Amino acid sequence: MDNQDKKRVIVISPADSFFTMPHVRAFQTLGYDCISFDNRSGKLYSSSILRKLMRVFPRLRIIKKITLDRTNRKLISLVNDYKPFLVFAVKAENIYPETIEEIKKMGVTTACFYIDLMDHWPVISKIAPVYDHFFNQCHVVLRRLWNELRLKNCHYMAHSTEPIPEDKMPSDRKYDITFIGTHNNELYPNREKYLMAIADLGLNIWGTDSWADTSLKNCFHGRSYGDQRLDIYTNSKIVIDINWDVMPAEGLSNRPFEVTGCGAMFMTDYVREDIKRAYVEGKEVVLFRDENELRQKVIYYLEHEKERKEIMKAGYVKTVAQHTYIERVKQLLDTIENPDKYLYK
């Protein structure tokens, strides 16, 4: 691509995604001109009624193809006009492999951070070979990409956060225990059971509306929208995480990084091995193996404020030092310059 600007970056990610602007701001902080491309615009994504009609009337699915074709053409046009050196996709499963190939022919480096796990293997296996650099947060996914497809463009990269400045944190946190997440007994068979074990200890739940139909309805405060979750974490003493373990997974969601980055104590079930790769158990985060251990540890750390605050502080310090969007973007840029250094095999 003639006149390609080595300081320009396009981030492909939905306008309303938690991940879009933090990545854009990280590139900008590091001195890059960075813009975002919304790959989920149009009625296909904004109208739930239309999506329901498409399921009932198969002929309406042509609308999806028209929307996706338009989105991919718009991206190619933007790349041609903006002339970036890098196009960085955050998942972006609706960007065609052919579109990425065309962008690469323009001389643009392409990278993708695919933020889902093995339940998305059909999509991952299709798009991973196309990018110059493909990142995922789970070793199970990366091992399969290497063992089955022998890909030499795949790299490990964990999630991250934008930490809340310490001077923005409240001196008195109003929520003793917080949980934010979906209620779905098929995907998360342990969530309701585990949370019932601590319901009487000051539990507060935000999430999908079906929590209101459970025995935990008195703890339920409705949905959290946008960055409201960060305000909730910042006002929480202990934040609980209960992962799905219906398929093999080692990688972490963004929750441990966001919670510790808000200065709360993070307490999670020990089903993801990466939690011990990212943090020190008992010093920076707290792990539990069943509902009885969860209850015991919640009671202990609510009663032992000094120890709880020491863990909160240590987790925050680790996150600020190692788990920010800026650190991940630095890793991405270093991978482009030194791909063999980060090659997963």
Question: How would you describe what is shown here?
Answer:
Helices cover 42% and strands 17% of the residues. It has 345 residues and is of the alpha/beta class. It has 2 domains: 5-160 and 324-342, 3-Layer(aba) Sandwich (Rossmann fold), CATH 3.40.50; 166-322, Glycogen Phosphorylase B (Rossmann fold, 3-Layer(aba) Sandwich). It has a 6-stranded parallel beta sheet with strand order 2-1-3-4-5-6, with helices on both faces. Strands 8-7-9-10-11 form a 5-stranded parallel beta sheet, sandwiched between helices. Strand 9, helix 10 (255-261) and strand 10 form a beta-alpha-beta unit. It is globular and about 65 Å long.
List the helices and strands and how they pair.
Blueprint: E1 5-12, H1 20-29, E2 33-37, H2 43-46, H3 48-56, H4 62-82, E3 84-90, H5 97-105, E4 109-113, H6 121-127, E5 133-136, H7 139-149, E6 154-156, E7 175-181, H8 191-196, E8 203-207, H9 228-234, E9 236-241, H10 255-261, E10 265-269, H11 274-278, E11 286-288, H12 291-303, H13 305-322, H14 325-337, H15 339-342
Parallel strand pairs: 1-2, 1-3, 3-4, 4-5, 5-6, 7-8, 7-9, 9-10, 10-11
Oligomer: single chain
Ranges where pLDDT stays below 50 over 5 or more residues in a row are none
Based on Cα principal axes, name the global outline.
globular
The portion of residues assigned to helices is 40-55%
